UniProtKB/TrEMBL annotation:
<dbReference type="InterPro" id="IPR034733">
    <property type="entry name" value="AcCoA_carboxyl_beta"/>
</dbReference>
<dbReference type="GO" id="GO:0009317">
    <property type="term" value="C:acetyl-CoA carboxylase complex"/>
</dbReference>
<dbReference type="GO" id="GO:0003989">
    <property type="term" value="F:acetyl-CoA carboxylase activity"/>
</dbReference>
<keyword id="KW-0444">Lipid biosynthesis</keyword>
<dbReference type="Pfam" id="PF01039">
    <property type="entry name" value="Carboxyl_trans"/>
</dbReference>
<keyword id="KW-0276">Fatty acid metabolism</keyword>
<comment type="function">
    <text>Component of the acetyl coenzyme A carboxylase (ACC) complex. Biotin carboxylase (BC) catalyzes the carboxylation of biotin on its carrier protein (BCCP) and then the CO(2) group is transferred by the transcarboxylase to acetyl-CoA to form malonyl-CoA.</text>
</comment>
<dbReference type="InterPro" id="IPR029045">
    <property type="entry name" value="ClpP/crotonase-like_dom_sf"/>
</dbReference>
<keyword id="KW-0275">Fatty acid biosynthesis</keyword>
<keyword id="KW-0547">Nucleotide-binding</keyword>
<keyword id="KW-0808">Transferase</keyword>
<feature type="binding site">
    <location>
        <position position="51"/>
    </location>
    <ligand>
        <name>Zn(2+)</name>
    </ligand>
</feature>
<keyword id="KW-0067">ATP-binding</keyword>
<dbReference type="GO" id="GO:2001295">
    <property type="term" value="P:malonyl-CoA biosynthetic process"/>
</dbReference>
<feature type="binding site">
    <location>
        <position position="48"/>
    </location>
    <ligand>
        <name>Zn(2+)</name>
    </ligand>
</feature>
<dbReference type="GO" id="GO:0005524">
    <property type="term" value="F:ATP binding"/>
</dbReference>
<dbReference type="GO" id="GO:0006633">
    <property type="term" value="P:fatty acid biosynthetic process"/>
</dbReference>
Length: 280
């Protein structure tokens, strides 16, 4: 039966070589396990038609859901990470970045762009979890800071879509500085009297929750998104107590006053735009 055994190990296809799944293929919901057409799933804003489970999606999908006719101009598209600390874990950091770029087709864990949403030009920054766990390093901080500058210069509202495991360990202190930098820029946006909405998606944790993700004029979230600073296991071990049911879900966080509302992804664009128009 040797012809069943894969002889070449580690065959990898770069994202740009992968073909988009043709219509007629099926998507199985990881939550209710029911099956639906991928096209139907996509038209439903990547939410399950049976149980409304919100599939995790990246910047590409958010841009196409939010910008009219998927028309937008990307900012700082080619900014890439340096290696200020000459950091090595199981791999040297530059090698890890290079491998992740090849695997995901992304340059770092956030993409920033501006374009029309229901006719209103909005500047948006959307994080990608696929890129080293959506970790916030210097590039993420710098791109967000510049996107805020762009919003101020062009007097547009600013939208942040967060999805992150926290600070990027390989940039250590440089990552932490991004919290201060982005927060200071958001203060300037506020001074310019421009609205900022922060959307927290599954998962938003660590330094991102401790900075820009919680600084919106409105902080909103997708249903059942995990939102927290430290993970539940760390907290349980620290306080030596069991945690309440649903701890760190968007619904729990809303009930405890940290969020303004939870938005179904299918209503996201309309709600955002009416919110921005109200605040402008
Ligand atoms: Zn489902």
């Amino acid at each position: 039966m040797s012809w069943f055994v894969r002889k070449d190990k580690g065959i990898q296809t770069p994202t740009e070589m992968k073909r988009e799944a043709p219509d007629g293929l099926w998507y199985q919901c990881p939550n209710c396990k029911k099956i639906m057409n991928t096209r139907e799933h996509k038209l439903n804003a990547y939410t399950c038609v049976h149980c409304n489970y919100h599939e995790k999606i990246g910047s590409d999908a958010y841009f196409s859901l939010l910008f009219d006719e998927n028309e937008f101009t990307e900012l700082d598209a080619n900014m890439q990470s340096a290696d200020p600390l000459k950091f090595v874990d199981t791999k040297a950091y530059p090698d890890r970045v290079k491998a992740t770029i090849a695997k995901t087709g992304l340059k770092d864990a956030v993409r920033t762009a501006y374009g029309p949403m229901n006719g209103l030009v909005v500047t948006a920054a959307v994080m990608d979890f696929n890129f080293i766990g959506g970790s916030m390093g210097s590039v993420v901080g710098e791109k967000i800071a510049r996107a805020i500058d762009h919003a101020i210069e062009n007097r547009t509202p600013f939208l942040m879509v967060s999805k992150s495991g926290g600070a990027r360990m390989m940039e250590a202190g440089f990552s932490l500085m991004q919290m201060a930098k982005t927060s200071a820029k958001l203060a300037l946006l506020d001074k310019a009297k421009l609205p900022y909405v922060s959307l927290l998606t599954d998962p938003t944790t660590g330094g991102v929750t401790a900075s820009y993700a919680m600084l919106g004029d409105f902080n909103i979230a997708e249903p059942e998104a995990l939102i927290g600073f430290a993970g539940p296991r760390v907290i349980r071990e620290t306080i030596g107590k069991d945690l309440p049911k649903g701890f760190q879900s968007a619904e729990f966080v809303l009930e405890h006053g940290f969020l303004d509302f939870i938005v179904d992804r299918k209503d996201l664009k309309d709600k955002l735009v009416s919110l921005f128009r109200m605040l402008l």
